[in-house]
Amino acid sequence: MSLTIMRRVKFCAGHRLYGHGGKCEHFHGHNYVADFFVQGNEQDSVGRVFDFSVLKKRVKGWLDENWDHSFLISHEDSNARQALEMVKPSRFFVLPYNPTAENMAKYLLEEACPIVLKDTGATAVRVRIWETDESYAEASLDSPASLASDALVADFAGS
Ligand SMILES: [Zn+2]
What we know:
binds zinc ion
């Protein structure tokens, strides 16, 4: 048996899919929704797996600081980076891969969550990124115990 809680955080960001070849290779943005699914080691004396307000503070804090009202680009997309560096003030975030919903979920699960949940005893086991009302991508750990696991799956639902 495992107990999981989820906190939803909304943010706005721009991106483009480098080398995509379709309309997504143009600069555009989304009102994203990120769902963070978290498990704790055990329930506390109150009966909680993890405090929702702490979860919100940590994950929303990271998003506010890094992705909200920012532009997400691939590290390979030097053309977009040059353009963004010309804009003052400019705010962008370079990802090690294309900023698809799948990769954004993966980055939050693998890179951001271990940092923001460090020393809390809680583990993010799944992150879902809604790019529209109809479609989301999800990254999840097969084994919640193993943060360093390569067993990461990305599912894409919707169109
Ligand atoms: Zn898009």
